[in-house]
Amino acid sequence: MTEAASSPAFDRKMLEALVCPQTHAVLTYDAERQELVSKAAHLAYPIRNGIPVMLIDEARALE
């Protein structure tokens, strides 16, 4: 079982209310990696147990 399959589902409606904490830009949902991606900031925020972790220090830098 993959991590995405074993973790609680992410509520896509929540995505409409969330913005990047660094740039305030819209986010896109990456279901495979369980992340919210900010293309403007080049960061990906993890979703853990169905809860987005919207901390810049916890974000993964995109290439």
Task: Write the SSE topology.
Elements: H1 3-6, H2 12-15, E1 28-30, E2 35-38, E3 43-48, E4 51-52, E5 60-61
Antiparallel strand pairs: 1-2, 2-3, 3-4, 3-5
What report would you give on this structure?
This protein is of the alpha+beta class and about 60 residues long. The chain has a single domain, classed as N-terminal domain of TfIIb (Single Sheet). The protein is built from 2 helices and 5 strands. The protein has helices spanning about 5, 10-15; strands spanning about 30, 35-40, 45-50, 50, 60. Strands 1, 2, 3, 4 and 5 form a 5-stranded antiparallel beta sheet that branches. A hairpin with a 4-residue loop joins β2 (about 35-40) and β3. The termini are far apart. The mean pLDDT is about 90.
Unreliable stretches covering 5 or more consecutive residues: none
Q: Which architecture would the CATH scheme give at its second level?
A: Single Sheet
Helix coverage percent: 10-25%
Give the terminus-to-terminus CA distance.
Answer: 28 Å
Strand content: 25-35%
The name of the CATH topology is N-terminal domain of TfIIb
Approximate shape? globular
Order of helices and strands: HHEEEEE
| Structural class label | alpha+beta
Number of strands: 5
| Radius of gyration over all CA atoms, rounded | 11 Å
What top-tier CATH class fits best?
Mainly Beta
Tally of helical segments: 2
Number of domains: 1
Mean pLDDT: 88
Query: What does the largest sheet look like?
Result: 5 strands, antiparallel
